[in-house]
TrEMBL record:
Taxonomic placement: Bacteria, Pseudomonadati, Pseudomonadota, Betaproteobacteria, Burkholderiales
Alphabetical UniProt keywords: Hydrolase, Metal-binding, Metalloprotease, Protease, Zinc
Entry coiled-coil feature ranges: none
Listed name of the protein: JAB domain-containing protein
GO BP term (any one): proteolysis
All residue ranges annotated as the MPN domain in the record: 103-225
Keyword Protease part of the UniProt annotation: yes
MF-aspect GO terms: metal ion binding; metallopeptidase activity
InterPro entries, A to Z: MPN, RadC_JAB, RuvA_2-like, UPF0758, UPF0758_CS, UPF0758_N
Protein family according to the UniProt entry: Belongs to the UPF0758 family.
Length: 225
């Protein structure tokens, strides 16, 4: 069932035009991207099924293409490509904002930006936001993968990349695939090790953010840095 087959007052496109995008529920916005449903399921029902299956918009947008492919109605490449394009647009929009404004002006944007990049990875990823002297974003780099310890994250590499970008400060970040965002003792120890190494080249560690889908933990906000 396509939009034209839905009752007029249930059509997301008409609702968006009349009341604005903010008036639409997540499923309605997603339905606008999907455009058509499948046999026995209209486009709104398909959108709701995807949200429930993958844990909301954040989980859906971070879902691997092969996982989407397994859902009836998502086997073709067009719809999956559109979802991935939306995610990339969101990443770039947030990245542009952080390049224009100091990270302290938009701490929630920093968390959301990191969630979009690494929040739903099935494995641990260690990333660094490199910042200029005004604490605006220069770039984000994913430096290490796997279980994060002082033996798997090399301080020398982090320092080398900071010097390469001429960074004045950094925000460290990694994800917890388990869903828990509480830092471990290893996380805290790693943070202090990197903080000491970067201080030798006059680069400040402003924060270490731990993310999972829809959640984030700031060590700076908790007084751990």
């Amino acid at each position: 069932m396509a939009f034209k087959d839905l009752p007029l007052d249930a059509r997301p496109r008409e609702k968006l035009i009349a009341r604005g995008a903010a008036a639409l529920a997540d499923a309605e916005l997603l339905a606008l991207l999907l455009r058509t449903g499948v046999a026995g399921k209209n486009v709104l029902q398909l959108a709701q099924q995807l949200l429930e299956r993958f844990g909301g918009l954040s989980g859906l947008l971070h879902t691997a293409p092969d996982d989407l492919k397994a859902v009836k109605g998502m086997g073709g490449s067009a719809k999956r490509s559109e979802l991935m394009a939306v995610l990339e647009l969101a990443r770039r929009a947030m990245g542009e904002r952080l390049k224009e404004r100091t990270v302290f002006d938009s701490p929630e944007s920093v968390k959301q930006y990191l969630q979009l990049h690494i929040g739903s990875r099935p494995h641990e990823v260690f990333a660094v936001l490199f910042l200029d002297v005004q604490h605006r974003l220069l770039t984000l780099e994913e430096l290490f993968r796997g279980t994060l310890t002082q033996t798997s994250v090399y301080p020398r590499e982090v320092v080398t990349r900071a010097l390469h970008h001429k960074a004045a400060a950094v925000v460290l970040a990694h994800n917890h695939p388990s869903g828990s965002i509480e830092p471990s003792r290893a996380d805290e120890s790693l943070t202090q090790t990197l903080r000491a190494a970067l201080a030798l080249v006059d680069v400040r560690v402003l924060d270490h953010v731990i993310v999972s889908p829809g959640q984030s933990f700031s060590m700076a906000e908790r007084g751990l840095i």
